[in-house]
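Example 5.3 — Sugar efflux transporter SetB
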Amino acid sequence: MTSGTGSTSGTRLPQLLVSVLLLGIADSMIGPYLVLFGVDEAHLSPLQVGVFMSLVAASGLVVSTWLGRHYDRSASRGPAFIALAAPAVGYLALTTTTGYALLLLIAVGLLGAGLAAFPQLFALARTHLDGSAGSAARRGTPVLRSVWSLAWATGPMIGAAVLARQGYRGLLIVTAAAFALVALPLLLLPAATAPPRRTAVSRTGTRMTRPILLAATAFTLFHTAMISGSVALPLYVTRTLDRADSDVGLLFSVCALVEVPAALSLVLLPARVRKQRVILLGMLVFVTYFLLVAVSSTMPLLIGTQVARGTAIAVVGALGITYMQDLIPGATGRATTLFANTLTIGSLISGVVAGAAAQALGYRATLLLCGVLSAVGCVLLASARQLRSAGSESSVSPAPGGAGTGEESSGCASVSA
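Solution (predicted structure tokens):
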């Protein structure tokens, strides 16, 4: 890299910011309402909706892995364009049919690819900003994360407004257009001059120890509860509490808005504070959220619960990745992927879990079940802490260099996020 790379890379941040902002808005516009589309427009049962959402997640896992490998070889914008074009076509296709078989084909063939868009954008950001001098390289990823959360604070309300005026057909069309617009700022990015750096890790250099397995299981349970709760919450609000669809958008927006200051406040924690204790506190707050939302019936109370929800998601999401990296020293890439996989697995199984629980037990009981999953995850993470108590535990610090993975998507999203 030449000395001018730093300043050149710094000028690429605005394009990336705009793309991440537009992607966040596109995801969050449709995220809270895709479940309601399945119930209201396609007349699917809760279990059928759950299967639909889980197939989106399963397809996303496969496509994200494939596009990620392709990006590692070329460091090009091509994979990002694929990840944006497929959901744009997919949401347009949803306007043409409500047949369940076709909906499942659209989920697998088109919508799942949209889950690869977020990690692809962050992979591009890492490639273009790695050579930056000054603050661009250090702060690029945190700034992009903040923009993502801000997009999720506004997107659901935009979706609610479009839904109120144009119905589900209009919302799907606007969402498709938003995904297409994400690609425009990427066209202004110059071609990467070098492939992304790859960390050389011996295949036998790391072992899946009990603390690692317990921590991974704990984060998987947390993410399963998080996404299952996102599936159940819209139905609980509109069916059990008989509130307007637009109220769902408001709740999701409040949650995403809270994530921004909650995540940024972690930077102020003293270095001596151990991150695992903070993560455990975040998980306990999440358990409290599910208990509170299950007994809340008015909008002021429901809005208050979203403060707890957003805080918990911000804490676990911001510190979880660096905690896993500390558990597997010398294998940052493998540790980051492991944490990302806990979200993907949670997305994959949460649709069926939430759908089956809602159909068998009801929406309020489903939220309480999510609280139980969070509590079990908290216990497992505490057990992992006990097992590694003899070793040193790292202190709170921002994630080094950022990670080009999709685990940073707003936890206030539904499964499609």
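Remark. The domain at 9-187 is CATH 1.20.1250.20 (Growth Hormone; Chain: A;).
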